[in-house]
TrEMBL record:
<dbReference type="InterPro" id="IPR016164">
    <property type="entry name" value="FAD-linked_Oxase-like_C"/>
</dbReference>
<dbReference type="InterPro" id="IPR004113">
    <property type="entry name" value="FAD-bd_oxidored_4_C"/>
</dbReference>
<keyword id="KW-0285">Flavoprotein</keyword>
<comment type="similarity">
    <text>Belongs to the FAD-binding oxidoreductase/transferase type 4 family.</text>
</comment>
<dbReference type="InterPro" id="IPR036318">
    <property type="entry name" value="FAD-bd_PCMH-like_sf"/>
</dbReference>
<dbReference type="InterPro" id="IPR016171">
    <property type="entry name" value="Vanillyl_alc_oxidase_C-sub2"/>
</dbReference>
<dbReference type="Pfam" id="PF02913">
    <property type="entry name" value="FAD-oxidase_C"/>
</dbReference>
<keyword id="KW-0560">Oxidoreductase</keyword>
<dbReference type="InterPro" id="IPR051264">
    <property type="entry name" value="FAD-oxidored/transferase_4"/>
</dbReference>
<dbReference type="InterPro" id="IPR016166">
    <property type="entry name" value="FAD-bd_PCMH"/>
</dbReference>
<dbReference type="InterPro" id="IPR016167">
    <property type="entry name" value="FAD-bd_PCMH_sub1"/>
</dbReference>
<dbReference type="InterPro" id="IPR016169">
    <property type="entry name" value="FAD-bd_PCMH_sub2"/>
</dbReference>
<dbReference type="GO" id="GO:0022904">
    <property type="term" value="P:respiratory electron transport chain"/>
</dbReference>
<dbReference type="GO" id="GO:0071949">
    <property type="term" value="F:FAD binding"/>
</dbReference>
<dbReference type="InterPro" id="IPR006094">
    <property type="entry name" value="Oxid_FAD_bind_N"/>
</dbReference>
<protein>
    <submittedName>
        <fullName>Oxidoreductase</fullName>
    </submittedName>
</protein>
<keyword id="KW-0274">FAD</keyword>
Length: 448
């Protein structure tokens, strides 16, 4: 098996070193570990396809890895899998500034795509704090959202074509140069959000956007979460909305303690608002906040330096979450009206299971997408499972979805039925069986 892989990609691109595999078989947080038998790094779509054929014929399981930034252990192998890394698929072609699109390798990082777009006077619509390591192939596989989703949408709305190596070892190349192509099945959409269970993305055509001429950013502090939600509801459909982010006081305290980044306003809750467009939205921002129940005067940034300063607390949260060890993460989507009730109930639930844990809440309030992170949570085994299950049930009780933008991975596969009906799951399994009858590709993900 190893010899066959080496013959496809070259011996230097295959490793069975235990230390290398151990480092690759752990999730982004460091909380979950698996086991792997080999690492292979193809350099082209055809090599990816050949690797898949070899693994299928040998009866080996395959786990696909990009930047390994999954927050639901989506790249953690469970069966001595072959780890198929897309890290060498980093080509970025010339940006088409007329059609505003670019073709990139699945292993290109988000930051690299953003730079290429910026150098061409355009921007890419999805942004994440993990931009330096997250790859666009992985982001498309999970249909990632991020900081700009309220304006530009998730990854699925940016992907307009792709190359994908299928489980049978063939390569599907789905590209179209026209903006409207209503011929047959929308195969591009089928692979976006499939979490690598239906094929390995090797290249993508990405939509790009004009750079707004004007941008204004503000951070407003609130003593009451209901008041913040009211203002958030006002802004999420506002003309020019570019970002709408919630940060709780506990997150602000952590960033101040560990990074020396002070919160720009006071209050138990902060709302970061950014408006952008061809015209200056400063006056409309001020008007929308005029009668809001604020804890203090908002902080406003009207130039790039001031705006970046206001973003620091939000963008630094992820960096400090691991200060007390691997955090326990929950990614939840809720109706806006349910968020205050859920936030209070979640804190009580955590206190009952892990009194020493610090619950930190932040996220993309425009979509009702919250990230609840339990810092200093030492639970494992049955105790962690009990808390995780109870939290999933609490999310469902509040009308939420157990996964908003992180996907299902391995951590949430037991709770898929909370978000999908039996008919939904049966249909997804039928698609999986049609493309991957032996179930060897990403076997731990989604269904398990």
């Amino acid at each position: 098996m190893i010899g066959a892989l080496a013959a496809i990609v070259g011996a230097s691109q295959v490793s069975t070193d235990p230390d290398v595999l151990a480092g690759r078989a752990v999730d982004y947080t460091g909380r979950y570990r698996g086991t792997a038998g080999a690492l292979v790094r193809p350099g082209s779509a055809d090599e990816v396809a050949a690797v898949l054929r070899a693994c299928r014929d040998a009866g080996a399981y395959v786990t696909v890895q990009g930047g390994r930034t999954s927050l639901v252990a989506g790249t953690v192998p469970e069966r001595q899998d072959v780890l198929l890394s897309t890290e060498r698929l980093t080509a970025i072609e010339a940006v088409d500034t007329v059609e505003r699109r670019v073709r990139v390798g699945a292993g290109a990082t988000l930051a690299a795509v953003q730079r290429a777009a910026g150098e061409a006077g355009l921007l890419f619509g999805v942004d994440l704090a993990a931009r330096d390591s997250a790859t666009v192939g992985g982001m498309a596989s999970t249909n990632a959202g991020g900081l700009r989703t309220v304006r530009y949408g998730n990854m699925g709305e940016q992907v307009i074509g792709l190359d994908v190596a299928l489980p049978d070892g063939t390569v599907l190349r789905r590209h179209s140069e026209v903006r409207r192509d209503n011929t047959g099945y929308d195969l591009t959409s089928l692979f976006v959000g499939a979490e690598g269970t239906l094929g390995v993305l090797t290249a993508l055509d990405l939509r790009l956007h004009p750079v707004p001429a004007h941008r204004v950013t503000a951070v407003a502090g609130f003593a009451d979460l209901d008041a913040l939600i009211s203002v958030g509801r006002r802004f999420r459909d506002a003309d020019g909305i570019a970002a709408l982010e919630l940060i709780d006081a506990r997150a602000a305290v952590l960033t101040a303690e560990h990074l020396g980044i002070a919160a720009p306003v006071t209050g138990a809750w902060m709302l970061l608002i950014e408006l952008a467009g061809d015209t200056d939205h400063t006056e409309s921002l001020a008007a929308a906040l005029e009668d809001a129940d604020l804890a203090a005067e908002p902080a406003v940034g009207m130039d790039a330096v001031a705006s970046q300063r206001l973003w620091q607390v939000r963008e630094s949260v992820g960096e400090v979450l691991g200060a007390y060890g691997p955090p326990l993460k929950f990614d939840v989507s809720l109706p806006l009206a349910a968020i205050p009730g859920f936030a209070g109930a979640a804190v009580d639930l955590v206190a009952g299971h892990a009194p020493e844990a610090i619950p930190v809440l932040f996220g993309h309030i425009g979509e009702g997408n919250l990230h609840l992170n339990l810092v200093r949570c030492a639970l494992d085994g049955d105790a962690e499972h009990a808390l995780y299950s109870a939290m999933m049930a609490l999310i469902a009780e509040h009308g939420g979805n157990v996964s908003s933008e992180h996907g299902v991975g391995t951590r949430k596969r037991d709770y898929l039925s909370m978000a999908r009906t039996e008919a939904d799951i049966a249909a997804m399994r039928a698609v999986k069986a049609a493309l991957d009858p032996s179930g060897y590709l990403n076997p731990a993900v989604l269904f398990g």
